[in-house]
């Protein structure tokens, strides 16, 4: 099997959505927001205790909520991928990014499988798409199946504030007075998960998510809990299509509270998920590793109007 590079992924995204100069090559449609991160207090020896990320309250946060795909005018009534790029600024000048999606399992065990899966969505020479190609690919590549099951059942997000976001990859934390922590993170909306039926979604305008979020912010606090699931030795740390058992212990790391939504502070940002604060590191997951070069290529292109 041919090795797929970051530029091949970006080229495929550009084929799927057509060239969109100046826009992100994935998650092109987005909504920026700001807020603060308040960490929980952890006792010495507990997992994550002593992390710089968790050592002081009220850290400034920049967020970008998004719709999957390269179309900057994507219809928000459509079910499917929603994303969140989250950047926490530490007092020492460090940054920690958490960039996740609303699905709990990735479409493929590695970059080649993900690329193959997305390629089945391209139209043929006659401009026709063939869903059977995708089904045949899934039969030959079972690691995309759990994601396809999710996609089939996914409903339209009612609001970004009512959406759960999953980091999918495995990360590590190395701190003093504790064994190495192996974890996967997710953000759980404190207002609860809410989705729309197809009829409810069709009754909305094509763009409603900015207003939904602004309305919720007027009514009261909008927040998320940052959670970490702790992995057992047998849980995969390199395969984002392999879900960990749901009963793994969970630690709450803190609360993310939104202050404002709208604005263009996210335009010049790159929410590269491998930018991590002291003590944290990414696993050898090849999909996680590919994300840094792919985001950098897209970042450079969009900043230069390509
Ligand atoms: C090989 C796998 C992947 C590739 C090649 C890829 C590629 C990209 C690219 C090129 C961008 C645009 C970056 C920019 O212009 O700033 C992007 C954005 C994004 N991706 Fe991925 N991605 C991958 C996997 C994932 C996964 C696993 C997740 C979720 C866990 C994810 C979530 C997001 C989100 C939320 C954004 C929007 C970030 C923002 O608002 O700036 N991606 N991705």
UniProtKB/TrEMBL annotation:
The family line of this record is: Belongs to the catalase family.
Q: Which cofactor does it need?
A: heme
Give the matching InterPro entries. Catalase, Catalase_core, Catalase_sf, Catalase_SrpA-type_pred
Q: Matching PANTHER family, A to Z?
A: CATALASE
Gene3D superfamilies, per database record: 1.20.1280.120, Catalase core domain
Q: What is the lineage of its organism?
A: Bacteria, Pseudomonadati, Pseudomonadota, Gammaproteobacteria, Alteromonadales
Per its record, how is this protein called by name?
Answer: Catalase-related peroxidase
A GO CC term assigned to this protein in UniProt: cytoplasm
CDD domains assigned: srpA_like (cd08153)
Question: What function does the entry list?
Answer: Has an organic peroxide-dependent peroxidase activity.
UniProt organism field: Bowmanella dokdonensis
- Enumerate the UniProt keywords alphabetically: Heme, Iron, Metal-binding, Oxidoreductase, Peroxidase, Signal
Its Enzyme Commission number(s) read 1.11.1.-
Q: Which residues cross the membrane?
A: none
Q: Which residues bind heme?
A: 295
**One Pfam family of this chain:** Catalase
Q: Which processes are annotated in GO (biological process)?
A: hydrogen peroxide catabolic process; response to hydrogen peroxide
């Amino acid at each position: 099997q041919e090795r797929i590079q970051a530029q091949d992924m970006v080229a495929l995204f550009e084929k799927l959505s057509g060239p969109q100069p100046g826009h992100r090559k994935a998650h092109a449609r987005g909504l920026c927001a700001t807020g603060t991160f308040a960490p929980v207090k952890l006792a010495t020896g507990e997992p994550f205790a002593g992390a710089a990320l968790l050592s002081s309250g009220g850290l400034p946060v920049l967020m970008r909520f998004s719709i999957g795909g390269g179309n900057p005018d994507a219809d928000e009534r459509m079910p499917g991928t929603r994303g969140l790029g989250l950047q926490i600024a530490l007092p020492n000048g460090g940054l920690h990014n958490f960039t996740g999606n609303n699905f709990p399992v990735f479409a493929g065990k590695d970059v080649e499988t993900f690329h193959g899966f997305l390629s089945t969505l391209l139209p043929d020479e006659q401009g026709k798409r063939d869903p059977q190609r995708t089904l045949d690919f899934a039969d030959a590549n079972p690691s995309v199946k759990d994601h396809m099951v999710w996609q089939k059942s996914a409903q339209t997000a009612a609001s970004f504030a009512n959406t759960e976001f999953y980091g999918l990859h495995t990360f590590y934390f190395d701190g003093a007075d504790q064994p190495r922590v192996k974890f996967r993170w997710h953000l759980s909306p404190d207002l609860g998960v809410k989705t729309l039926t197809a009829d409810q979604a069709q009754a909305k305008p094509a763009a409603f998510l900015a207003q939904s979020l602004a309305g919720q912010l007027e009514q009261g606090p909008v927040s998320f809990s940052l959670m970490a699931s702790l992995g057992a030795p047998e849980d995969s740390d390199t395969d984002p299509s392999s879900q960990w058992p749901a009963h793994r212990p969970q630690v709450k790391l803190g609360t993310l509270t939104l202050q404002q939504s709208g604005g263009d502070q996210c335009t010049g940002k790159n929410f590269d998920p491998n930018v991590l604060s002291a003590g944290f590191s990414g696993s050898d997951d090849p999909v996680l590793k590919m994300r840094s070069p792919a985001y950098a290529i897209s970042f450079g292109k969009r900043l230069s109007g390509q």
